Amino acid sequence: MVSSCPVYSEKIALDLMSIPKDIDNIYVHKLSSDKNSTDFLIVIKKSAPLHMHANHTETIYVIDGEGEFQENNERYMIKQGDYLRIKKGTPHAVKVTSIKPLKVLSVQAPEFFGKDRIFLPEKE
């Protein structure tokens, strides 16, 4: 019999339940971190502006919600269950298109200290 991994699934479930209801746009909660990567639960109500990471690869798994994702000059729809891998130096942004917020698991590699987020001018 194969069992699930309760430690992380329970932690993410608890973190999802503890999301403040009064967030204006973006809520970020660090789940774990070591020298190799940092894991975040991110909730976006409206949008995340165009930005890039010069020294980090970002992997995103969509937990809930939908949005229009921009990567470089390409735009596509994302939804629950989608997996994205954004190479370092790649401009990206998202606009939420669902009524409910977009909830994602974001993994930054290597370890992320919050200083490698370079905001860029929006492209039409």
Description:
With 124 residues, the protein is mostly beta strands. The protein has a single domain, classed as Sandwich (Jelly Rolls), CATH 2.60.120. The chain contains one helix and ten strands, in the order αββββββββββ. The chain has one helix at 6-17, and strands at residues 26-33, 38-44, 47-52, 57-64, 66-71, 74-79, 83-86, 92-96, 102-109, 118-119. The strands form two sheets. Strands 1-2-9-4-7 form a five-stranded antiparallel beta sheet, with helices on one face. Strands 6-5-8-3-10 form a five-stranded antiparallel beta sheet, with no helix packed on it. The termini are far apart.
Walk me through the topology.
Elements (H helix, E strand, L loop, with lengths): L5 H12 L8 E8 L4 E7 L2 E6 L4 E8 L1 E6 L2 E6 L3 E4 L5 E5 L5 E8 L8 E2 L5
Antiparallel strand pairs: 1-2, 2-9, 3-8, 3-10, 4-7, 4-9, 5-6, 5-8
Keywords:
mainly beta, Jelly Rolls, 48% strand
Summarize the structure.
By secondary structure, the chain is mainly beta. The model has no long low-confidence stretch (mean pLDDT 90).
Could you say what the CATH architecture is?
A: Sandwich
- What count of structural domains? 1
* Computed CA radius of gyration, to the nearest angstrom: 15 Å
State the CATH superfamily name: Jelly Rolls
The computed structural class is: mainly beta
Task: Assign an overall shape.
Answer: globular
Q: What's the CATH class label?
A: Mainly Beta
> In the CATH scheme, what's the topology name?
Jelly Rolls
Largest sheet: 5 strands, antiparallel
Helical coverage, percent range = under 10%
Could you tell me the mean pLDDT?
A: 90
Number of strands: 10
**Number of helix segments?**
1
Sequence stretches where pLDDT stays below 50 over 5 or more residues:
none
